[in-house]
Amino acid sequence: MQYVIFPAGPDDAEELARVHVTAWRQTYQGLLPDSYLARMSIPVHARRFRASLLRPGDHEATLAVADRDGLVGYAAGGPSRAKRLGEAEITTLYLLKTAQGHGLGRALVKGLARVFAANGATSLMISVLRDNIPARGFYDHLGGKGEAPRREPGPGGVTHEVSYRWPDIRVLID
Question: Could you give the domains of the chain?
Fold first, then answer.
């Protein structure tokens, strides 16, 4: 199977929403309340994607990955929400189960790292649910340094998240 990674635009909003909702249901079953996952709406998420892609913030980027049948994943982010000087943050990274294990997650992380570094970022971070063991293993494998879990408000109540950091973003750039 061949894949292409490209900057997402407003016309990709519905496909991004489909991937987002499907990936959440695949990834977070048993980690988040089933009732929350069942209520997720592709049209609602499509509107959010369209709005954010029409008016992105400074230094924000969304990369999508597709095969011949359509989008299978995406990653997005921008400057760190913690406002740490020089730090970029990947806020979302999702692949459909069928697209995992092909190096696409790594390619999306590296692609965003290149974009962020070109915009002046010197470090990178991403947060993940503490109990999402496969994702945590992926970030460990990429060399991210996990921090202690912290409590965060989330869907269905309080969640526990772990932040992974790359103090030098250049380690992610080929």
Answer: 4-172 (3.40.630.30)
